[in-house]
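Q: Protein A?
A:
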Amino acid sequence: MAVDGPDAADPGALADAVAGRLPMLGRAAVVVPAVGFYRPASLRLEHGRTDPDARYTDWLDAGALTREVLGAVGPDGSGEYLPALWDLARDRSARLPRRAAPADGVLLVPGSLLQGVGLAFDVVVHLRMAPAARARRTPPEQAWELPAFDRYDEEVDPVSLADAVVLADHPDRPALVLQGRFS
């Protein structure tokens, strides 16, 4: 399950909250943040540290995420996934051992800009923020990323692709909108 949304909406917090509740419902859960599959700085920042187009297209290594996580836990996979490929803080390989995915467990991948890059998820939850709310809640040092999210909304239309949408303009008043097969 993808939990897709801008950093300001904190998709990781929602993924962690869902993962924390699933065992009470009889399902094990694993959270593998997409940020662990960002490319090295030499590739990610090749066009500068504040290029919104690079943020949109060059940061996530979708192939590695597919190979090391989604394919590995999928029906034809080994059942062992890599929790992270790259350590952003040290800008080097995370060198983590593979982990066994729980039988009948749920894999949650929180991150931003996850749709429209060829990743195959069974369920996608998109945290929708209006551009004004994104601008208001994005820290000033990350404001350069805002055009990447505007482009994502325009080109990918993540709301229309998602199975469920959480309206996240106000963090204290989220609203769930079910779509497609869930509505």
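Q: Protein B?
A:
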Amino acid sequence: MTINERQDQIIEEFAQFDDWMDKYALLIDFGNSLDPLDEKYKTPQNIIEGCQSRVWFHAEMQDGKIIFKGDSDAVLVKGIVHLLIDVLSGHTPDEIVNADLYFIEKIGLREHLSPTRSNGLVAMVKQMKLYGLAFKAKENK
């Protein structure tokens, strides 16, 4: 499935709900379904700076695709981590670097987060794209 196809599915899932309390509940459900991140990856170099809560991302290359794993100590943020991983994990560095993550705006996520959580979301996306750039640079060596 392409990045855009998965984004469109997420937009449809969120469109089923009018009330943001229901959308928050959906995010929490996503967070609860996130596989726990191995403790060995919960290191200072994997923490996302700029997040109100603690968020970790780990990335590795498998067969030319980046596999992301992540976690957070906040249940709502964990749901956001799940969404980002769901959309970007399993794609090539190029696809990740060039991805337009339009689902964030379309589902109204940014406008329904506190300013610090919104900044954290931007930091998470930036870090995932930086992983894409780093793996792309390694490929080109």
